[in-house]
## 1
Amino acid sequence: MTNLKVHGSAPLDLGSDLEGDLASLRCDCARMAGHWSAPAPVTTLPVSPSLIHGVTVPPTSARLLDAMSDYGD
């Protein structure tokens, strides 16, 4: 079910498709672009192999991964 509640100043055109089209999606994305910012890039340094002590995987996760096919389903 589509939520028709609108929290903004843009008018809702009920005569058009509620899902919109590619042009309206691009317009929405361009309007929202200023509200979203990319996080600062994180630089990581290589870790010496002597500092890596292994990985612990819970048995349920190991069974899940073991049951997955190599190339997806």
## 2
Amino acid sequence: MPRPNPAQLAYGSATVILSALAMLLVSQARSGAGIAVVASASLALGLLVAVRVSGRRPSGAPRPVTGAVPAQRGAETADGGRRLAETSSRR
């Protein structure tokens, strides 16, 4: 299982703390069961936020081409034109 990155830890922790405080203030829970429900809900929300942070990608970022080798796609020349991929004469 991959380790969480710093953004996931930061957003997830902040979500758990802030949502727990907000829910405790709004619900005014005083019993142990009420506090347990608020704590589990805030943990679940923090986990959801942490998982969603990892999947984000800027909208302008290009998606990688799957299954394509850079030599097969052609290469850029110095003047910006495209040239054919070079083939190897070795066998």
## 3
Amino acid sequence: MHRRIIAPGALAAAVLLLAIPASAAPRSPGAPGIGDPYYPAYGNGGYDVSHYDLRLKYQPATDELEGTATLLARTTQDLSSFNLDFLLDVGEVRVNGAKASFRTSGEHELEITPKTPLAKGTPVTVVVRYRGVPSSKKAYGFTSWHRTPDGGVAANEPEAAAWWFPSNDHPLDKATYDVSVLVPDGTQAISNGTLQSTSSRLGWTRWNWRSDKPQATYLATLAVGKFDITTGTTESGIPILNAYSKDLGQHAGAARASIERTGEIADWLTGYFGPYPYNALGGYVPNTTTGYALETQTRPYYSPRQFANGSNTSLVVHELAHQWYGDDVSLKGWKDIWINEGFARYAQWLWSEHEGEGTAQELADYVYASHPADDPFWTVRPGDPGPENQFDIAVYDRGALAVQALRNEIGDEAFFAILKGWPQKYAHGNASVADFQRYAEEVSGKPLAALFDTWLFQPSKPGVPAARAAAVAKGAGKVSQPRSWKKIAATNGVHEHGEHEH
């Protein structure tokens, strides 16, 4: 805490200021960050967005994107100015219909000063007209826009939005979306949610997508290229739309053999996590050179080379599990990443059991046994790994091990009640690791602070007594590798993000 000695003259001025009625108090700029210690400049303060309406035109040959973004928001403080996170070139900004002045600052800040200051608690409409070449823009030394031979793709974590639309770029501010994209005939535009309509005119086709449930900005995606599209429905009637780049080459068969099982896997996951939270489902595989997948809401992104060794349904399980753990319930801060990754990895363990390739218990035993006490693996704390280790393998494997330890501590009945109850308790909202611990204690009726501390927060391997108590240590004997291990390990790079390595 910083203490300052105030000079008598300044004190008198401060007293005078306090005497001014609140209505006349000066309005202040919104903060340039939402307050996440991992990424201090991500998101913004002073307002909350409820809806994004994006009308875009994209030219695959030149990677030129032009658009008009309309944001519906509400102020959370009196504002003299506010920021959006954005990288493309802005031509005009209007706030509540009137032209606003704007400038850029920092790595990705668009600072907007409305003609008239904004009062707290009022609805605001912001319109931004823009254009640019997304692949030419970098922030922090990398790009989250992937150029492909036939177009481009926006998909990355923890950030991708700034390359294609202006936003409050942090999971704390979720909103609904309408994404309308004009592309040359013969080219497809893929996004989240349901395809509302397509229409063609004068050589161009417009694709209209809608996400009608709150969605974090990093989970919004856009892919333009030449795709083969397949459609279907799950057993419960959810429409499925999958898209495969026409030039996946030798990976095409394995990619389809995996992703065409999306409906079956989603239906299976409802048995553990409760009803599927959205009205659309699918996946897409563009011909990018990346090596990761991403749980983009309702329609995960997959890289072709993840299918280099054949089909991998375990990867599909991981990304679909995120629809509940990560998308429906989003993290409050990026330090809460364990709730996303630990449970998505644990879903792969349950799938392994379902496929007869090793039980969750055998996988937990194997993870515990295969990392000796001096392995740096144990120094990563999944409950708060730090930005440099946010996507470290320990967040996944040690994270899932913590889930199994919880299961063994509280018993299957309480454990599976928690798995289903959690996405319903915080549906379409945000929650933290602390919220999860409280919820698990509430459902199980057991104090769990020591267990969470041991498995999620200690930078060391849990000792054999703790491991035996959580039933994940088999003594000194060698633990054999479960059959599913290689398929699960093949998804370890799911968040190694090209030029932005996490």
## 4
Amino acid sequence: MTWRWEYDPDEQHVAGDAPPAFLAEVEKKADELVRAAAAFYLDGTTYRGEGPKGGFADVPGGFFNYLIVPRHERLYIMQVAFL
């Protein structure tokens, strides 16, 4: 597997009518978080530690909520807030 991010359940549900420039910032930050997760969980598919970690990430114009699932090697974007 390869680490990546995705909207959960899908972009329309999570992002709704957020402006494209804001979503570009969200996706840029998600890329950074994925690189960090890949470095931290070198082989996420065999990870057996504590439950998934997540949090909030600030981006220009708002923030988003995410969840990291090492065994899926995924960062799921759960909600975005455009302010």
